[in-house]
Amino acid sequence: MSSAVKKVEPLRFPFQTPDPFLFAVYHNDDYPAGDDQLRAPRRGNGADFDPNSAYRMYHGDRVPGFPQHPHRGFETITATMIGLVDHTDSVGNAGRYGHGDVQWMTAGKGIVHGEMFPLVNADAPNPLRLFQIWLNLPARSKMADPAFVMHWGEDVATAKSADGLTTAIVWAGELLGARGGTPPLESWAADDANDVVVAFMTMKPGATFALPPARVGGDANRSAYFFEGSALRCEGETLRKGVAVELDASVGAELSVPSDASEDAMVLILQGRPIGEPVAQHGPFVMNTRSEIARAFADYESTRFGGWPWDDDAPVFGKKGRFAKVNGVEYYPPSAAAAAAKDER
């Protein structure tokens, strides 16, 4: 193997991730047409994650998704490709986002939120494809106030390789001169010195892409995940779909797709300087010590992290378009905002 490739192993569910990341999962569901309440026929047992199923309800009843649940001590980056997510939380924030939008939420000292997948198409399928990635917080930020940032798909940075056959969508950090949106203030990614990169690449048959060294060189961890496609090479090594590749971030790595490949290759890149602190995790709580985990459970039991201001454990927003409500103010993606301004004129 090339010195750039440290390890190749089968992808797990969720993906194995390097510090400063905690978790990454790829949702790929072929949901059917929804009924008048945006629902699908019930499947599974209420905790179904079977990757061989056409679609999963996860913890949803008839609307798929994740009804209210708590988090403390880390951040979630939910990066969508296709489909919609309805968000609600204990702070009173809300939103409907998808089709390229990215929601970045700092749980900090504690938040309860719901993420539902409304089936808004009544006469057509409702496919869903997205990543959710958990980024750890350093000890100094684990009890920060919760925060919520929406990056609309129209504003998400993209770049093309020199041969034009690779498209990189940059959700965080910088790649090929394209820069991701501004993270929440307390995020590990908010400090450029941490060189956090989250990027999604689509490589067409015949593509060659030179992943440059990290800005901070070997001080960063870097992994590449080949999760969709028929063939990919990394530094000349032929990879099968469904592998995680740990890379040496101090040197570049060449990725390529054979010209006779039958499908585009899709690759997720996670990179960042490690936080380097102890990790104590129990389900949705990630702290530095077991005593802090016990305190998180006690705090949640006594405060519910602010309570749940919604009438339902799993709210959805009917036929409403994409929007975000943060600190009581609603705002909209550029396309919807421009249309509204035109109507007002």
TrEMBL record:
Gene3D superfamilies: Jelly Rolls. It comes from the Eukaryota. Residues 58-135 form the Pirin N-terminal domain. SUPFAM superfamilies: RmlC-like cupins. Residues 201-306 form the Pirin C-terminal domain. It holds the Pfam family Pirin_C. Belongs to the pirin family. This is Predicted protein.
